[in-house]
Amino acid sequence: MNYNSEKIPTFVQNRQITMRNNYRQGVQKNTGGGKRIGKFSKNTENRPTRKIEVKTAGKSGRKFTISSESAPAKRRFEQNTNKPFAKYKPRPKKIDVAKTGSSKEIRLNRFIANSGVCSRREADKYIASGVVTVNGNVVTEMGARVSPGDDVRFDGRRLNAEKKVYLLLNKPKDFVTTTDDPHAEKTVMDLVKNACNERIYPVGRLDRNTTGVLLFTNDGDLSTKLTHPSHNMKKIYQVSLDKSLTKEHLMQIAEGVELEDGRVAADAISFVNPNDRTEIGVEIHSGKNRIIRRIFEHLGYRIKKLDRVYFAGLTKKGLPRGKWRLLSEKEVHFLKMN
Questions:
Q1: Catalytic residue IDs
Q2: Across-strand partners of 263?
Q3: Does the structure show a pLDDT above 90 at 50?
Q4: Fewer CB in 10 Å around end: N or C, the chain?
């Protein structure tokens, strides 16, 4: 290599000379130094170099060809150039059956839940027990699918997929929260029997003497979600006591009261009116039976009136006692996203 000392600084020249000497020493010793080391360093000076020729190929632009006296390099080049390119195959688009609606089959447990019998989880148990038949055949396989035209029967009764109904009732006193009780004179189903043609049932329960917000639906999945303790659905009650609640008992309810079935604490508690200590507002997420009444009875109080004013984001505002209304789409969406 020739270096022009007028153009290249001295320290650069020294660096280049050092690199050149190291390279030559590495070639002789087959170790260290140059760019090619080891098995590629032998006979480096005798190896032929590739030459690149540029030819013009008309309107197609430049065409590059490689010519070399090295046989291995020539073979590698010929192999690469002779190998045909793979044709481009576009990846097939994944079709979402649920969105396109090309298939109307659904899972059997979902069909049962849509019919308003129970939730999907409970439907799986019924399927495994052998009480569900499809077109006359008993089906016990999990994940089985059915079409809308199939004859699906639950315990001998034919099921039909129903549209979802969501209804809110302002429950009055002296009505039992049940779908069927031969010993009850009045049930909440008597109040909503003409509301819709679908079979709906109450979500959770309020005892006979408790009034307020009560939700009805035939959506089994939503019902399970709203009543399962793990979801911690918020409920607010207004309590009327027979005597004033002391501040000590107020703090005790907030910190937790030990009952026969375990410890329970209110999420929030306060006086509705600071001048009237018999009216209490209690927020709680526990779904235990008669939990509000048992808390105050444990502390020596008798509840004169118990009204649920809030349940999972729903209120009875503007709804007279004993009347019902259908939920709006916004309220249904809120329940499902809650």
A1: 207
A2: 258
A3: no
A4: N
